[in-house]
């Protein structure tokens, strides 16, 4: 039997959900079944994290911060006396730049790890999708301003998929490899 997994995501525009589902699909190919759960719908209870072989979190960033539901999960997770292993993926447009897709190179991911005293077995940042037409007026203006500051596209008709899906595949493969190396086995279910 394989290690029980939990895969959570926090999204506003759907890209973190797409990434979480992609990770789940790839893990399924490695023989690890997991269903992504939306943190906005329901945060896991602290006791729900006990006995889990690995917690995977895919968290979007909005206006320089991970979404509140992801922050809440990180906080709950960080207070666990014996927290299960953790893999974290941060979804933000900064990760579109070379070197900004690692835990060391991505300020948002680095700050979240430090702030919540996380010790992920795997951490990576993925660029999201920029689709101005989907944003509300204020969000569109704010994101255009941020893009102007960071040298990104500012044309309000822009729709760009920045996610490097091969990097998402590598993240999933890294999780599968970690699960293989950890040797943790699922406990038989009581009937």
CATH architecture of the largest domain, please? 3-Layer(aba) Sandwich
Task: Tell me, briefly, the overall form.
Answer: globular
Mean pLDDT over all positions: 91
**pLDDT below 50 for ≥5 consecutive residues: which ranges?**
185-191
Cα(first) to Cα(last) distance is 16 Å
Radius of gyration over C-alpha positions, nearest whole angstrom: 17 Å
CATH topology of the largest domain: Rossmann fold
By oligomeric state, this entry counts as single chain
Helical stretch tally:
5
Helical/strand content category = alpha/beta
Task: Give the DSSP E fraction (strand runs of 2 or more residues).
Answer: 15-25%
Largest sheet descriptor: 6 strands, mixed
User: How many strands appear in the DSSP assignment?
Assistant: 8
Q: Give the full name of the CATH homologous superfamily of the largest domain.
A: Flavodoxin domain
**Secondary-structure element sequence?**
EHEEEHEHEEHEH
CATH hierarchy, class of the largest domain: Alpha Beta
What is the domain tally? 2
Write up what this structure looks like.
This protein is α/β, with parallel strands linked by helices and 191 residues long. The protein folds into two domains: 5-128 and 163-182, Flavodoxin domain (Rossmann fold), CATH 3.40.50.360; 130-162, no CATH class. It is built from five helices and eight strands. It has helices at 15-29, 68-78, 107-115, 137-150, 165-182, and strands at residues 5-10, 36-38, 54-62, 65-66, 86-91, 122-126, 129-131, 159-161. The strands form two sheets. Strands 1, 2, 3, 4, 5 and 6 form a six-stranded mixed β-sheet that branches. Helix 1 (15-29) crosses helix 5 (165-182). The chain is globular, with a radius of gyration of 17 Å. Residues 185-191 have low confidence and may be disordered.
């Amino acid at each position: 039997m394989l290690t029980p997994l939990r895969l959570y995501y926090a999204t506003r525009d759907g890209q973190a959900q797409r990434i979480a589902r992609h990770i789940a699909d790839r893990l399924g190919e490695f023989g690890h079944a997991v269903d992504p759960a939306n943190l906005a719908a329901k945060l896991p209870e602290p006791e729900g994290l006990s006995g889990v072989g690995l917690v995977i979190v895919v968290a979007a960033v909005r206006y320089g911060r991970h979404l509140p539901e992801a922050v809440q999960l990180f906080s709950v997770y960080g207070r666990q006396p014996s927290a299960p292993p953790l893999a974290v993926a941060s979804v933000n447009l900064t990760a579109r730049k070379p070197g900004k897709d690692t835990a060391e190179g991505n300020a948002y991911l680095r700050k979240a790890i430090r702030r919540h005293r996380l010790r992920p077995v795997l951490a990576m940042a993925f660029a999201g999708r920029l689709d101005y037409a989907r944003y509300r007026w204020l969000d569109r203006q704010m994101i255009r301003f941020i893009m102007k500051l960071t040298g990104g596209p500012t044309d309000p008709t822009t729709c760009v998929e920045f996610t490097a899906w091969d990097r998402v595949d590598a993240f999933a493969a890294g999780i599968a490899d970690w699960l293989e190396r950890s040797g943790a086995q699922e406990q038989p279910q009581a009937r």
